[in-house]
Queue: 2 jobs
Job 1
Amino acid sequence: MKKRLAILGATGSIGRAALDVVRAGQEDFEIVLLSAHTGAAALERLGTEFPGAALVLCGEGPAGPRIRRGREALPDAIGEAGADITLNGIAGAAGLLPSLAALRARSALALANKETVVLAYPLVKALAEEQGVPVIPVDSEHAAVFRLLEAHGRDRVREIILTASGGPFRRHSLRQLEKVTVREALDHPTWSMGPKITVDSATMANKGLELIEAVRLFGMEPDRVKVVIHPQSVVHSLIRMDDGALYAQLSRPDMRLPIREALYWPELSPFPFGDLDLPGLHLDFEAPDEERFPMLPLAAEAARRGGLYPCAYNAANEEAVEAFFQGRAGFLDIPAIVRYVLDRDWEGELSLESITEADGRSRRIAASRIGG
Ligand code: MG
């Protein structure tokens, strides 16, 4: 029986990699829904390739008659799609409501949208349990940890170690970081991704979000989630057991691996895109520099404080990165803006309302700092 699959963010980097996985396993999947933020023409072409799929364009732009329009149309389309599994590859906080819509529709959730976890994982987890469907991480580090915990159990795990490429400015001094341009920030050494996440990788905000993600997803205390710089992006993450033994997942850096693992979960199937060769392989590890990359300790602080702090961190960062793209903020202004926002009070219970309120408030405070 084919799995009925919905892909959200189908024209983005996760969506395109997922479609590669589907094309290599045509007998295993039936695409029932494809959504995109922009790229009506690309979505239209996918509609021709997968004629059974409903199509939703969430952003602006002209589109043909087969495509449903608007962000509000997506939850309904998810509800009607009857997917067995929904891959959420939407970028940013906009991914949260579609995640909840998928779970409400009793679809398994393959989650590449880290904001769903960072902002609201307690709500997401409760809904998934109520509906009896799994949430499977697709972020490469968390997908690795998910597999490692499946293999080794959780009880004896002392810490989770997330690997980070370190981004293109790993060797930059503070003075050099100050002058980083948008163009330089978009040039990532090992992973090819969307523009926002590429900048997040350069500031290490991406790893900061992933640290919060790991804390929430795996129910780990923040001081037991560590980050190590590993420029080759071959080791996707590690766990350290009570007895000191480390276990890691390694492969070529290719998002099709975690996507494929999630879409086929709980089954394992041979990876058709080539194996990692060990001879000649060099693996480097170093500690992250928190002074040059303050987005990492700021995330650890947000994770420790809990409540709505992770939400404030995320929204402030999204605003700051947008201002950086528009030339209204420098590269080092990004952590300064987030610091400014985190200094406000973000205590509070998690609910959809409080998250929406904190998201908006954080953006307004960030905007006042950017403007001022
Ligand atoms: Mg990642």
Job 2
Amino acid sequence: MSSRTAGEDGGQMIKPMDMENLICAADQARQNAYAPYSRFHVGAAVLCADGTVFTGCNIENASYPVSNCAERTALFKAVSEGYREFKAIAVISDAEGFTSPCGVCRQALSEFCEPELVIYMCGRNRKCRQTTLGELLPFAFSL
Ligand code: THU
């Protein structure tokens, strides 16, 4: 594990500007959501260790289980480009409350991210709640 500084919630320290940019990028990605079935538009953005940001949106399918969440779209885009270390992820929707990653996305993140991964869960007007992967998925399964 690299030398990282932990924030109050046990997550990595993210500069306020990086946090703002990440949430803004996730919100922009939300515009591309393909959600004709649920009409629930979600955007996500992952912050890589070197500062690179990858974004994603949810992509639904007429065969419902084929659909992909915004978080996994962003994560898989990053991984497929060779990125393996992540500091934070932001997820945003237009819902009243905070949008929290589903169980499948939590497990997908745990394959590549430490429990200290910072997660910004955001809703309408970019109102956000900060947590960590370790808080959302304690005792993650791994081989
Ligand atoms: N969805 C996401 O993309 N991320 C989440 O964190 C929660 C749910 C998507 C999946 C589906 O396209 C729609 O939102 C409704 O569940």
